[in-house]
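Tutorial, part two.
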Amino acid sequence: MELIEKYFPDISSNQKTQFAALQDLYADWNIKINVVSRKDIDQLYLRHVLHSLGIAKVQGFLPNASILDVGTGGGFPGIPLAILFPQTQFTLVDSIGKKIKVVDEVVDGLQLTNVKSIHSRVEDIGGKFDFIVSRAVARMDAFTHWTQGKIKAKSLHNLPNGILYLKGGDLSEELAEFPESKLFSLTDYFTENFFETKKVVYLRR
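Running the prediction step on this input gives:
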């Protein structure tokens, strides 16, 4: 929790309570359904929560904006972002039912009212969104194919509508066919060594 307050000092008391509850909720559900690696559960706030919130350092979300989290797994990056932006609407999608069950239980435990979960492949869902977020579920070429046609035309944020994708390592080969993409290094926002190779890839759509 100290990490969250270090980088997001203006969060409300209710948000602090919700962020603090994540450790016990995920530790409990991870025993039943492994959605976070065993070695990571003790570093949940660094490797999962704060990592997810790296997207918020690149682009904050307006009230009533709609965000789609593709391949959310146990709820990352969608749930931490939904806590941080309680007036923004989040749709969390995953093709694996047991992972969506964990999402539902965590959302219920936190009493989040701005999260909708869907057990589906993203290609099969309807609707359009201001931004699509995700955390390294596929190469960018596959990801853009899956999410084609799901971005709203009208932009309201500082960045035009598009994809905000958490990725790590050397992305030069993967992004060669996306010269318009922009990389934001998370070391510009967070000082922990974990973020040395971590980036947010922004792709306008």
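The chain is about 35% helix and 20% strand. In part three we will examine how such features are distributed along the chain.
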